[in-house]
Write a structure and sequence with these properties.
Elements (H helix, E strand, L loop, with lengths): L3 H13 L21 E5 L2 E4 L4 E4 L14 H11 L10 H13 L5 E5 L2 H16 L3 E5 L16 H6 L9 H4 L2 E4 L4 H10 L3 E6 L2 E2 L5 E2 L2 H14 L2 E5 L12 H5 L5 E4 L10 E5 L1 H4 L18 H16 L3 H22 L5 E5 L2 E5 L8 H4 L4 H13 L2 E2 L8 E2 L6 H16 L3
Parallel strand pairs: 3-15, 5-6, 5-7, 7-10, 10-11
Antiparallel strand pairs: 1-2, 2-3, 4-12, 8-9, 11-12, 13-14, 14-16
Helix pairs in contact: 2-11, 3-11, 7-8, 12-15
The structure holds pyridoxal-5'-phosphate (PLP).
């Protein structure tokens, strides 16, 4: 595959933008090689500036559940644009999207929109602290909750990939209230509660997608709920990735555990920058201007972004069977990979939740970040490069989740499996 133009563009971009990218994981650092510059998307495909076409399993890192250039989302955006890009005043679309999400998520009684997942989580944490009057928070190693200071501790993919568990520029003082527990290990959470003077909240990706795909055990989430209740701490589900990706009604509907607050992003913006946090009415009432916990945003609830989100989420709500159909496809893909790996004696762990899929090059099951880190990242890098060369665009790190969209056809899946079979057969 000729990627001359991308290579040249990357050299130029590196002169202008640190590392040539506006978000680190795009840089292909952990797999070597250079990132592709994208000219356009077409349904299930990405097309780079050298005119190569790839089946896209990244989908803008989650948002594009209807693939690229979905007609109804595109039309909704164009229509909104014609009415003005931003007003800094309330619009009907904000209430419509709020109403829609509240009707879908049992745990969400009120919601506020922001412009990114990072902002959503940062604000939800502030709200939890304001509501409980406590400072400490508990997070899990390998879970990513955006790049705000207090949460940039042992934060999965980016950190794992670059080997910097936390970042220079974050004062130790700012993370001293962040307690770390191990995913799927309730004893480690109990220890945090014992060590703390007062835990404001436990925040978790109930279906972790930022250390590769690692779902939490149902039992573990139920125990978390009980622990939080015993200690008067709030439970926050960070569903910025899994929300409207794993299923329609949220992780709470498939795990049976109800959080106090939920953070959303990615799919609810349909490709535009949107984040949100919502939950119990009495907690949300603490938020300014109703309450005293301050939070704001010039472009929050932006009408163009709301239009994209509305089109996207309403289409999901109106097609309740969609998740089942896509899950079958994702399972077929992972089964195909698993069978091919087995045939060539390659250790591979696979998992699927709705439209999310993950695979680790490892002989052992993966239930937490330490397990994930045992994966053969060198093998992943080779696999990634070979798949790219064959026209299949996977996330450029072993510790990311893959995505199926409505534009990912059965034919594409079979072609992907066939390509993987060839690569596994040619292993060293
Ligand atoms: C992507 C992600 C975030 C951050 O969202 P941004 O829009 O990138 O700021 C937070 N939490 C989870 C679980 C995510 O996957």
């Amino acid at each position: 595959m000729n990627t001359q133009h991308s290579q040249e563009a990357f050299i130029q971009a590196q002169e202008l933008i640190p590392g040539g990218v506006n978000s680190p994981v795009r840089a292909f650092k952990s797999v070597g090689g250079t990132p592709l510059f994208i000219a356009r998307g077409e349904g299930g495909y990405l097309v780079d500036i050298d005119d190569n076409k790839y089946v896209d399993y990244v989908q803008s890192w989650g948002p594009l559940i209807f693939g690229h250039r979905d007609e109804s989302i595109e039309n909704a955006v164009i229509d909104a644009v014609k009415h003005g890009l931003s007003f800094g005043a309330p619009t009907l679309a904000e209430s419509e999207l709020a109403q829609l999400i509240i009707s879908i998520y049992d745990s969400i009684e009120k919601i506020r929109f922001v412009s990114s997942g990072t902002e959503a989580v940062m604000s939800a944490i502030r709200l939890a602290r304001g509501f409980t009057g406590r400072d400490d928070i508990v997070k899990f190693t390998g879970c990513y909750h955006g790049h705000s200071d207090a949460l940039l501790v042992q934060a999965g993919s980016g950190a794992a990939t670059f080997g910097t568990p936390s970042s220079p520029g974050v004062p130790a003082d700012f993370t001293k209230h962040t307690l770390l527990a191990e995913y799927n290990n309730i004893e480690s959470v109990r220890q945090c509660f014992t060590d703390s003077q007062g835990v404001a909240c436990v925040i978790i990706e109930p279906i972790a997608g930022n250390m590769g795909l690692v779902p939490a055990d149902k039992e573990f989430l139920a125990q978390l709920r009980t622990l939080c209740d015993e200690h008067g701490a709030l439970l926050i589900f960070d569903e910025v990735m899994s929300g409207f990706r794993a299923c329609l009604h949220g992780a709470e509907s498939i795990t049976g555990t109800t959080p106090d607050l939920v953070t959303l992003g990615k799919v609810i913006g349909g490709g535009m920058p949107v984040g949100a946090f919502g939950g119990r009415r009495d907690i949300m009432a603490m938020l300014s201007p109703e309450g005293g916990v301050y939070q704001a945003g010039t472009l929050s609830g932006n009408p163009v972004a709301m239009a994209a989100g509305l089109a996207s989420v309403s289409k999901l709500r109106n097609n309740p069977k969609l998740f089942g159909v896509l899950e079958t496809r994702a399972k077929r893909l992972m089964q195909g990979f698993a069978d091919a790996a087995k045939a060539h004696n390659i250790g591979l762990q696979t998992d699927v939740r709705g439209t999310m899929f993950g695979f680790f090059f490892s002989d052992d099951e993966v239930h937490n970040f330490a397990n994930a880190l045992k994966s053969d990242t060198a093998r992943f890098a080779k696999f990634h490069a070979a798949m790219l060369d064959a026209g299949f665009y996977f996330a450029c790190s072993q510790f990311e989740t893959g995505f199926i969209s409505t534009a990912t056809t059965d034919t594409m899946i079979e072609e992907t499996i066939a390509a993987a079979q060839k690569i596994f057969a040619a292993k060293d």
